[in-house]
Each structure stands twice: as C-alpha cells, then as structure tokens.
Write a structure and sequence with these properties.
Blueprint: H1 2-12, H2 45-53, H3 58-70, H4 74-78, E1 85-86, E2 91-94, E3 105-108, H5 111-121, E4 131-132, E5 135-136, H6 141-151, H7 157-170, H8 175-181, H9 199-217
Antiparallel strand pairs: 1-2, 2-3, 4-5
C-alpha cells in the first residue's frame, strides 16, 4: 500500500484526471509494524561463536564473524573487495554506490577484524574478500541454518548487526558513534546530519566493542 501510494502520487503529478489516491482512506489506520528486537544475548554468544568456528566453509565462517564484529549490513560486508581494504592503515571502505543509504562507510579495523582479514589476504589473490561461485558470497542462509541445527539458535545477519549495536550501547559508546559505526542515518534527526565523526575517532569505540564481544564469546 505504501508503494502504491508513492506510485499513484507520482503519476498524479503528470495526469490531472487521475482520481484521488485511494490509500488516503488508510492515513490513520496503517497496520503498526513492531520493530524487531532479536539479537544474541550474552548466554548465546559463546555458543554461537563456537558453532561458527565449526562451519565447514571457512568463507562463511569469516563472513559471519566479520558481521558480528563490525555490525555491517550483509550485502555491504559480503561484497567487500580487497580494493576496499587497507591493511596498512587498518581501515575498510565501502563506497556509497554499494551502501544502503548511499553514504560511503569507512571503518577502522579492530585487532580481531584485522587479524581475520590479514589471514584471508594470505590465502591468495582474489577480487573479493569473501569469494563465492558467482563472484562474492551473496547467500549466508545455509550457514545460519547449520548454526540453528547445531545450537537451536535462530539468528540472521541483521540480528548480528543488532547484537553489535546493543553491545556498543552496553559498553557506553555514545549514540552518534554507534550510528557512525553501523552507518545508520535517521532522516528525521536533522541535527545528527551536522555531526561529522572522523574514522580515527571511531577506532577507540570500535575496539571497545570488539574487546567486549571477545569476552562474551570467550575468544
């Protein structure tokens, strides 16, 4: 219905004979959608981490660990190219052409993600950090299904993003820095648009979250 409303309004701009938008009848009766809250709690994290290490695919394993320790969106993380990773400066950059909000994301590598990516780099010369049969590893559903079968924990890539954010909050990381780390934009918050946080400023909070996750996962 929301898509129909948008398309109808767009068409009405060029067709004066178009009737009133039928979705107007629902302007006060939209069905409320509850925000999802599923994430890994402290008791689940060591079980999840151990199950990830036992995944038969090392690429799936490293992708899931990177998702957990960065809070990145699945496609933005899975499509990482080695050209996006600077091991010398310990940063990774996803250009705006590949991010959901079209904003370039530059993250500092923590001790955990640097070690993981350093090991992947030593495996060979590939274009993608997480290679798959058709370029990069675009589907992680099988890995999450394997984890559910082994542990009973039902989780998704976005739930790992939520786990990262929750851990950051529990570590006392300020909300503007959490939003910068996960590249989240609240279009209703106009003030936040004036706060520019440098990558160097994010290194300490990113490492704080990393250390906390390592402790919770019993790394």
């Amino acid at each position: 219905m929301m898509m129909l409303r948008t398309i109808w309004n767009h068409a009405a701009d060029s067709d004066e004979n178009l009737p009133a938008n039928p979705t107007r009848r629902l302007r006060r009766a939209w069905f409320p959608i509850e925000r999802r809250t599923r994430h890994l709690n402290p008791e689940q994290l060591p079980v999840f981490y151990k199950a990830v290490l036992k995944l038969p695919s090392p690429v799936q394993r490293d992708l899931l660990l990177t998702l957990l320790f960065t809070g990145m969106r699945l496609n933005e993380c899975a499509s990482l190219e080695w050209a996006d990773v600077d091991l010398a400066s310990k940063t990774l950059t996803v250009p705006g052409t590949r991010t959901k909000n079209k904003r370039t994301l530059t993250l500092p590598l923590t001790t955990f993600t640097y070690k993981l990516l350093r090991a992947r780099r030593d495996l060979g010369n590939t274009r993608f950090v997480f290679p798959g049969r058709r370029g990069y590893l675009s589907n992680s559903k099988h890995a999450f299904a394997q984890i559910k079968e082994a542990t009973g924990i039902k989780i998704s890539a976005h739930d790992l993003r939520r786990t990262f954010s929750t851990t950051a909050h529990n570590c006392g990381v300020p909300w503007p820095e959490i939003k910068a780390l996960i590249n989240h934009v609240d279009r209703k918050d106009t003030t936040a648009g004036y706060v520019i946080i440098a990558t160097a400023t994010l290194r300490a909070p990113a490492q704080r979250v990393c250390d906390r996750l390592k402790t919770l996962c019993r790394v």
